[in-house]
Amino acid sequence: MLNITGVHTFYGSIEALRGVDLTVNAGEIVTLIGANGAGKSTLLMTTCGIPRAARGSIRYLDRDITRLSTHEIMHLGLAQVPEGRRIFPRMTVLENLLMGAIVSDEAYLEEDLERVTTLFPILKKRTHQRGGTLSGGEQQMLAIARAMMSRPKLLLLDEPSLGLAPLVVRQIFEVIEEINREDDVTVLLVEQNAYHALKLAHRGYVMVNGEITLSGESRELLERPEVRAAYLEGGH
């Protein structure tokens, strides 16, 4: 579904991605783990067209999207939940959800609203509340629900557990698994919480300083001593 080959991305003279190769097959949950500043978020943003890859190629559904604009990419069935949620704080929950539906068929609007509020029942109770007044966990739920309103085939999730209480993190990860299983949405998950991410995902990649250093089945990565030492030791 998504094939990233030899991608280099720069911020000015700083090379943030150094020849990254990564593949996500249809139906998978694939996680990308690594320390803060490793380039994980840059890879997701590069996939969405901002910033652009300086070299290499990004193919989605057998189409080269490396040079497409962000809005063209979104119309192909790809959605991103950015780090920090980035909801519209002055808009209501409903208005945020409607923003997510802009690229989808209006005929599915009511069905999709019902679906996302079934995934996150608290959003139904907060329909007319401004997004900025929600708790951190509720804002993350809204960000995921807004992305789902676009009916994505591929969902890019950037640090969905960041700053959330363990109970909320568990709920978010359960919903990600349900979206993948029940809605047939493929997921590329960027996470610093390596343990939860690898327990959820089918396959994983490890990124260090803009390069992929390890990849494999999630169960295998959980057992790798270098992964355990760098990301798992000292508790989950």
TrEMBL record:
* Top-level taxonomic group: Bacteria
Keyword hit for Signal? no
SMART domains (UniProt xref): AAA
Q: Pfam families, from UniProt?
A: ABC_tran
Task: List GO molecular-function terms, semicolon-separated.
Answer: ATP binding; ATP hydrolysis activity; branched-chain amino acid transmembrane transporter activity
Q: Which UniProt keywords apply?
A: Amino-acid transport, ATP-binding, Nucleotide-binding, Transport
Instruction: Please give the PROSITE patterns that the UniProt record associates with this protein.
Output: ABC_TRANSPORTER_1 (PS00211), ABC_TRANSPORTER_2 (PS50893)
InterPro entries from the entry? AAA+_ATPase, ABC_branched_ATPase_LivF/BraG, ABC_transporter-like_ATP-bd, ABC_transporter-like_CS, BCAA_Transport_ATP-bd_LivF, P-loop_NTPase
Among the GO biological process terms of this entry, one is:
L-amino acid transport
**Residue ranges of every copy of the ABC transporter domain listed in the record:** 2-234
Which protein family is it in? Answer: Belongs to the ABC transporter superfamily.
Q: By what name is this protein known?
A: High-affinity branched-chain amino acid transport ATP-binding protein
